[in-house]
Write a structure and sequence with these properties.
Thrombin, subunit H, Pnp Oxidase, Chain A, about 210 residues, 2 domains, mainly beta, about 50% strand, six-stranded antiparallel barrel
């Protein structure tokens, strides 16, 4: 279980419910790590707790700078106090997918985002895109954003809108300014959506070459 050292208290994770009426992707965090079990916060949707049953099949995903990790299991137990939590069994090994390196280009498409909190998603906040790549983006915002937190970003690109979860790699307050510079990586993005972004990046590169900028 060499992966276990990556499971830190408070780490943001994604829990995918694989069956039932609440099937879908939810963002939560690690509350406790045992020898053979992992406890995560209960799931919320629009501020209301998702009522999952014990035995429900789920898939847990977590990540670092190098790779995305995941494993499937089921909810072994539900805990109500001191806070609502879900208990999962830890496997002997997890699936690992290496991250790829992507070309980053200057871009200024509209971007907005919602922060993931214990109560669900926050209100919408606006940002100003600085650059874009197949792996993530940077943007400016007046809203404080925590490092390692999870967001849902909404992008307006030339070939269509896109919304996807992202992990904050770095958030820094700009000196003598009310803005924060935020770098994020796409998380659990589909290949179709990533291709849409990469095509957008290629179009920007072609335009820059025509202008002699690269």
């Amino acid at each position: 279980m060499s992966y276990k050292k990556k499971l830190l208290l408070g780490l943001a994770v994604e829990l995918v419910v694989l069956e039932g009426e609440h099937e879908g992707n939810y963002l939560t965090r690690i509350e406790e790590v045992g020898e053979r079990i992992l406890t995560v916060g209960a799931l919320f949707n629009n501020g209301e707790m998702v009522g999952l049953r014990e035995g429900t099949k789920v898939k847990l995903k977590f990540w670092d700078e190098a790779a995305v990790y995941s494993f499937e299991g089921k909810i072994m137990q539900k805990i109500a106090v001191p806070i609502p939590m879900l208990v999962l069994e830890l496997p002997d090994s997890v699936d690992k997918v290496q991250r790829r390196n992507f070309v980053r280009v200057p871009a200024s498409y509209p971007v907005s985002f919602r922060s993931v909190t214990k109560e669900g998603l926050s209100d919408f906040h606006k940002g100003t895109m600085l650059d874009l790549s197949g792996g993530g983006l940077r943007f400016l915002t007046k809203e404080p954003v925590e490092n390692k937190s999870l967001l849902y970003v909404f992008l307006t690109l030339p070939k269509g809108d896109l919304q996807t979860p992202v992990r904050v790699c770095r958030s820094e307050k700009i000196e003598d300014s009310k803005h924060y510079r935020v770098s994020v990586e796409f998380h659990d993005i589909s290949e179709r959506e990533r291709d849409q972004i990469i095509h957008c990046v290629f179009d920007i590169q072609r335009s820059m070459r025509k202008k002699g900028l690269v």
